[in-house]
Amino acid sequence: MKYLLTITLALSSLTIAQDELPGWGVYLGGGLGGVSMDAPDGVTVGSEPQLPFIGVSKGLMLGVPLLVNVGLGKRGFNTEVDMGVKWKTGMSYDYLDIAVGMPFPAGPGFASAGLLFGVPLNSGTMTLDIDGESESSSIDDLEMDPDYGLMLAYSYPVNEKIGVSAGYYLGLADHGDSDVGEMKFNGIFMMVGYTF
After folding, report:
1. What whole-number distance in Å separates Cα of residue 158 and Cα of residue 135?
2. Which of 22, 75, 144, 176 is the most buried (most CB within 10 A)?
3. pTM for the predicted model, two decimal places
4. Residue 140: count of CB within 10 angstroms of its CB
C-alpha cells in the first residue's frame, strides 16, 4: 500500500509540475484504420485510410490534468479476395468521438494515455475495387454500435500555438456477429492542432 501511494504521488507531482494546460483548440488529421478479426479463408483483412478527423480540444484540471477532444472520427478497414478476379472493399464509418487523455511530460512534448468513446453517426463510405477499377459510394442508415477503447499518443509542439500528435487506438468494443466472429477496431492516427 505504501508503494502504491508513493507511485501515485510521484505521478501526480509529475503531471502537475508541467506547464499550464492548453486552452481551446482545433485539430485536423487522418489515420489508417483496421480491425482485429478472424478472416474467413481466402479473405485478407487490411488497413484503410480514414480522413478527416476534425474537432475541438480543451485542457481541463479535474484533480488531475486532462485533455479532452470532441469531433468527427472514423473507423474502417478493407478486405481483399482473389477469385481469379481481385476484389478489394474498403469501409469507412463516421463517428462522433469523445476522447479524454491524461498528459505526461516526455522530452519536448508530452505523452498521453486515455479513453475514447465513439457515437456512431450511421453513415460512411464504401469503396469497391475490381481488378483496378474503383468506385466509391456513400452508405447511410447503418446500424453501428458505439465504440470505445484505449488511446496512446505523443504530441510535439512546433511552436506555442501549433502542435503535431501521433498515436494508436485499440478498440475494446466487439462489433462482430455470428458470421464474422469477434471484430474490434484499431488504428493509427496523426493530427495537427492549433491552440487559441
Report:
1. 38
2. 75
3. 0.84
4. 9
